[in-house]
Amino acid sequence: MPRIARRTFLAGLGGAALTACTGSGSNTARPPTTDGFEASGSPSPTPLPPVTVNAATGPVQVPGAPLRVVVLDTDVLDSALTLGVTPVGAALPASDTRFPGYWPASRTAGIRLVGPAGAPDLGSVRALRPDLILSNQARDGDRYEQLREIAPTVLTQTTGAPWKADFQLHAQALSRVAPAAAFVTAYQKHAGQVAGALSAAKLSGSRVSLVRFVAGGGIRLFGRQSFPGIVVADAGVGRPDAQNVDQSDFEIPPDQLGKADGDLLLYATYGDPVTAGVGATLASPGWQALGAVKAHRAFPVDDQLWFQGIGYTGANFMLDQLQRFLGA
User: Fold this and answer.
1) Are residues 309 and 219 part of one domain?
2) DSSP 230-250
3) Which of 172, 197, 212, 321 is the most buried (most CB within 10 A)?
């Protein structure tokens, strides 16, 4: 299957969402724009009634089809944009200075930054007058009471491994249940196509290593219970023995770089590359001795996509890249 151009791919995803939004069910009305009118210029339909969602903190009543949404982590950013909701505000990881590049600038240009994920500026959040706040307990559990005083706040328990279940909760909170189902179906079809292509090329037995260099956090390997680990598994591809474990990630010392080897090695960097020790590690004898490096099968990938995307749009792009890296 040829590589999918970003613009074409996003257009296809948008079509799936639009089809779902205009189908039967509770989400029959097109989402209004932030000025209260539909894209056609006609008045927006009657507002949807409030929705009660079962968040990690218990039942939370949120407005139907909220218009002013603030997202405080990268998974909810992907969920909102995937479902056609442009947040009015967002928090990004502290070392990130831009929105994820796998989204066109036109989709993120109007989003106001409200500080780092895990320590958002509550004054900035309040100034945006949100009618819904989305995050998770791992990031914002300790400020939940403050957030809910600003607007109804829906938290999942964590992020990463449960990204598919979290997406469903996000869809409920955003009144986008029908388009969410369309995206899930599209992703499953895409993953099946990639798995089929890899099988036909006799590449299903390839073992993909996932490595992340973290400034101040050393060298991290990712197991099956992680966002990228699940996407790789959905493509029907295996993992190196050291990473074929039921955990999210773990740190290794430089003298255990052998655990990073695989038939294909994908690595990313979060934060300052120098502080993360990327250059020193890539030049080290241990790294140079890896089979994937010797075979020229070690590739850098975008950290904001592979390790922070944590959603269906990010996952679809990863499937596309994985297929290209493996050569099917």
Assistant:
1) yes
2) HHHHHTT-B--GGG-SSSSEE
3) 212
